[in-house]
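Submission checklist for the structure archive. All mandatory fields must be present; incomplete records are returned to the submitter.

[x] Identifier: ABC transporter ATP-binding protein
[x] Organism: Rhodococcus daqingensis
[x] Residue count: 309
[x] Sequence attached
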Amino acid sequence: MASSNGVVLDVAQLRMRYDDTDVLHDVTFQAGCGEVLVMLGPNGAGKTTTIEILEGFRRRSAGRVDVLGSDPEHGDELWRARIGVVLQSWRDHAKWRVRELLDHLGAFYRPYSTGRVQRPWDTDELIALVGLTEQAGAKISTLSGGQRRRLDVAIGVVGRPELLFMDEPTAGFDPAARRDFHDLVHRLADLEDTTVLLTTHDLDEAEKLADRILILAGGRIIADGSPDELSRSIAGEAQVSWTVDDQRFVHTTTQSTKFVHELFKQHGDGISELEVRRASLEDTYMTLVRRAESGDEADAVHTLAEVTR
């Protein structure tokens, strides 16, 4: 079970070394019950290695890892039944039909049902949840790429996990499917108290989903905070734009509130289309990663600490 203070993931000083190369350096973070944690980082940053260690599929070199109250290296079947994994892709089961595959996989979770968590998910409810009702009787080989991805998600959550790991879960989704997936993640977190840790390269998706964002670069966590906290960590300047007498103006300032106040004192109701833009998550991400790659990750972490302390 989660610790008494509601911590589901507790990682401290995690290190991973292959031969003479360190790929993870003292990675430390926590996640609480029902929290959606999004892990960002360039390719090779250590995201997949971190998740594989948390899932119990890879042995770490050093550090402490506590997942749902257990060390993943020694997790038993009951522990594993409480965890869901959405892989980047499933490559087999082509001859199965959607409903029969989910029925089959769900049966493995039935012995681990408890008074608090009924396992597995009802198959038809789950199929509806991921938007595959019309394909319930279809062979998996006939599904489109987006439908196949929805099935990947259903397979990952069929056991009603308390903790769900997802690696690039919306790759191949069209905009409507991506929106449905976001709704599903929010339902899992808000109504089922599922803790979700996912990786994505889609920064817009990260901003929509995340309670907190971790940014990895060079095997180190260089930022840990909400999307708003991360944006404020580098947003020394804001861009103010407005229109007066059909003319568009843009001004950059470190004191946007004071500037807008003075603007209204000067022009009053003559101002229209006023917009104050702080750094976007994409701006923040690119800035922090550039700092890390140039050797300034300590400055990046220090800046974030000043905002969130």
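[x] Structure attached
Curator remark: Residues 302-309 have pLDDT under 50 and may be disordered. Residues 175-191 form the longest helix (17 residues).
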